[in-house]
Design a protein that fits this description.
Layout (H helix, E strand, L loop, with lengths): L13 E5 H18 L2 E2 L1 E2 L9 H4 L5 E4 L2 H11 L2 E5 L5 H7 L5 E4 L2 H13 L3 E5 L38 E3 L8 H15 L8 E3 L13 H15 L2 E4 L3 H4 L5 E10 L3 E5 L3 H4 L2 H4 L17 E6 L8 E7 L8 E4 L20 E5 L5 E5 L3 H8 L1
Parallel strand pairs: 1-16, 2-10, 3-4, 4-5, 5-6, 6-7, 7-8, 8-9, 9-10, 12-13
Antiparallel strand pairs: 1-11, 11-12, 11-15, 13-14, 16-17
Helix pairs in contact: 1-7, 6-7
Length: 378
């Protein structure tokens, strides 16, 4: 069976979003929305490939933005609901956001007090981010409820505060978690903030709900959300990022050279630091199509990037055959939280972006050039 990712029309390097897989994820989310009676919006911080927004907008209610620029992307490229949350807004941010968004959540009472009159006058629904003081994320870097977190207001700091202009609470403490983590989070919210819930219109449960991962208990999520929504008569909002684009496409790369130093090292036409920085930041080991762990298969290689950073190394992988210059290497699941973090570091070629359409044809939607690198730096 021919691998569609090996289509010669797909350049290297290139991020390839597989349309059929993306739509399958969206259809699952549509089921959750309908059966649980909730609204799901796309978190642009995880997936902002706006060439797919016509499809995404058929299923989801809109987008959530972490900045003015993301809000503009949501407003102008999808044109549905726009929700905003940021750790802090400048006055200039608010001046623009009031023309772009439907909901806005503040990270502190100080920010709420500073901007509430202007935001209320624009007819925008206001919320505050709460800290449930409940930890579920496995990696500290991605844990908003870690001790000393700058994100969200703790229950003790709401005592005696006038929240008459607040219509919703925003809570986000999950990272690629299951439905039982969501259930535990709701219990923590209820434990610390129950007295406020009957007075609210909406509760935004943030992202981290990895409902499109194989084995996720979607029925349990639906039952959990539905029960909480009915108990407090609240609009429930979820804003997944990873789950929307989970397993929807690879990063296609190519072997450029093979050198030897305590074993063979294949140098690729992509960079870990520039094109998939989580490999170095988390760190994590991306899956490669047809490859295994070191020594698992006959030929083991260290895979390195094409920047001058000494540590621009992905990991050791084994293959059934000796790698050849020009051979393609397919890094799986590179659409979410990867494209959004890329840089032009070292001026290395930035991967193109394309869509493998449902009919099997490939559509190149963006190829980067020298001018993109030049104009970013000014």
């Amino acid at each position: 069976m021919n691998d569609p990712i090996m289509n010669p029309q797909i350049p290297s390097p290139c991020y390839v979003c597989e349309e059929a897989r993306l739509e399958a994820n969206l259809q699952l989310m549509e089921r959750v929305q309908k059966e649980a009676g909730v609204n799901i919006i796309l978190a642009l911080k995880g997936f902002s490939m706006w060439s797919t927004f016509p499809l995404v907008g058929q299923y989801l209610q809109g987008c959530t933005a972490s900045s003015v620029w993301e809000a503009k992307l949501a407003k102008y490229e999808m044109g549905k609901e726009v929700h905003a949350y940021s750790p802090a807004y400048k006055q200039a941010d608010i001046d623009e956001l009031v023309t772009l968004v439907n909901h806005i959540s503040f990270n502190s009472l100080g920010q709420y007090q500073r901007y509430k009159d202007q935001v209320a006058a624009a007819g925008i629904s206001m919320g505050i981010r709460i800290n449930p003081e409940h930890r579920e994320a496995e990696t500290e870097l991605y844990d908003p409820s870690a001790p000393g977190s700058r994100l969200g207001i703790m229950a003790k700091d709401l005592e005696g505060v006038d929240l008459s202009g607040i219509e919703g609470f925003h809570v986000h403490n999950l990272c690629e978690c299951d439905s039982f983590a969501a259930e535990r989070t709701l219990k923590a919210v209820e434990q610390r903030f129950a007295k406020y819930l009957p007075k609210l219109k909406w509760l935004n449960l943030g992202g981290g709900h990895l409902m499109t991962r194989q084995g996720y208990d979607v029925d349990h999520l639906i039952a959990t959300l539905k029960a909480f929504r009915e108990k407090y008569d609240l609009e429930i909002i979820l804003e997944p990022g990873s789950a929307v684009a989970w397993q929807t496409g690879p990063l296609v790369a190519e072997v450029v050279d093979i050198v030897h130093n305590e074993g063979p090292i294949a140098i690729l036409d992509i960079s870990a630091t520039a094109h998939m920085p989580d490999v170095l930041e988390m760190p994590y080991r991306p899956a490669i199509r047809g490859a295994g762990l070191p020594q698992e298969k006959a030929f083991t290689y260290k895979l390195g990037g094409n920047s001058c950073l000494a540590g621009d190394v992905i990991d050791l992988y084994s293959f059934d055959h000796e790698l050849q210059i020009g051979e393609r290497i397919i890094f799986e699941d590179m659409i979410h939280y990867t494209m959004v973090k890329t840089t032009f570091f070292n001026g290395v070629e930035h991967p193109s972006i394309g869509i493998l359409q449902k009919d099997g044809s490939f559509k190149l939607v963006r190829k980067f050039d020298y001018e993109d690198f030049r104009d970013k730096l000014s």
